[in-house]
């Protein structure tokens, strides 16, 4: 099935865009949401994480303590690598299961670190970047999560730069500080239409070759 990799920095608006694409019928597979589910209580990652990082990594009600984990992963590349070695195979497994069930004109994989990880680029037909200026990212994430500007900036500095993302984009949805939700919706809709068109052409193409 024709597939889009949807990415963008924290607070760029990718979840908002993905929610509309899902409403319009695309099969949306959100790797961030999957990672959250794996690390809530009874999630499949909890026991391996407890084994690897000890009981302090898990809250009293059985979830991953994200703040605790984030601080350590930022401070120590080895911790980050061990964390990824646990999470990535579980995420891949859940992504594959969702992709197998996917129905719709095309698939959208929402991958916050698509540009950084490299392992996603070959799995998608096109990369769409939701683009935003850093000051607006900080403002939006503060409004959504209550994280401090320092924490948000630290997360942003560990992510690819705006330029690196734009360099690999096939499609760009501008969602900067001057963009209201109506404009974002219109831009998302026009991408959706062009992807439906490309998806139908690519499925006709393979029918001819078969
Ligand atoms: P991401 O998934 O990229 O981290 P979100 O889609 O969650 O970002 O957007 C971050 C926050 O900003 C959300 O609360 C969202 O509703 C809001 N938001 C995103 N784009 C706009 C916009 N153009 N105007 C107003 N609020 C926006």
Write up this protein:
The chain is of the alpha/beta class and 210 residues long. 58% of the residues lie in helices and 11% in strands. It has 10 helices and 5 strands; from the N terminus they run E-H-E-H-H-H-H-E-H-E-H-H-H-E-H. It has helices at residues 14-23, 31-38, 46-53, 66-75, 77-101, 114-117, 134-145, 149-158, 162-167, 181-209; strands at residues 3-7, 27-30, 107-110, 126-131, 171-174. A 5-stranded parallel β-sheet has the order 2-3-1-4-5, with helices on both faces. Helix 2 packs across helix 5 and helix 7 (134-145) crosses helix 8. The chain is globular. The two termini are 15 Å apart. Adenosine-5'-diphosphate binds at residues 8, 10-16, 140, 144, 175, 179-181, 184. The site of adenosine-5'-diphosphate has 15 residues, from helix 1, helix 7 and helix 10.
């Amino acid at each position: 099935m024709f597939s889009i990799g949807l990415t963008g920095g924290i607070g760029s608006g990718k979840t908002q865009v993905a929610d509309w694409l899902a409403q319009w019928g695309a099969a949306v597979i959100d790797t961030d949401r999957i990672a959250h589910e794996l690390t809530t209580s009874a999630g499949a990652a909890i026991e391996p994480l407890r084994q690897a990082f000890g009981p302090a990594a898990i809250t009293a009600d059985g979830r991953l303590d994200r703040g605790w984990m984030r601080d350590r992963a930022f401070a120590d590349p080895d911790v980050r690598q061990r964390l990824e070695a646990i999470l990535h195979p579980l995420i891949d497994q859940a992504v594959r299961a969702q992709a197998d069930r996917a129905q719709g004109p095309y698939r959208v994989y929402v991958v916050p670190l698509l540009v950084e990880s490299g392992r996603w680029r070959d799995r998608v037909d096109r990369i769409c970047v939701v683009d935003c200026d850093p000051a607006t990212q900080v403002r939006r994430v503060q409004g959504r999560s209550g994280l401090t500007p320092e924490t948000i900036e630290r997360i942003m500095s560990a992510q690819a730069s705006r330029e690196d993302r734009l360099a690999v984009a096939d499609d760009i949805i501008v969602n900067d500080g001057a963009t209201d939700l109506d404009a974002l919706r219109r831009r998302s809709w026009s991408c959706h239409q062009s992807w439906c068109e490309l998806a139908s052409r690519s499925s006709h193409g393979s029918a001819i070759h078969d």
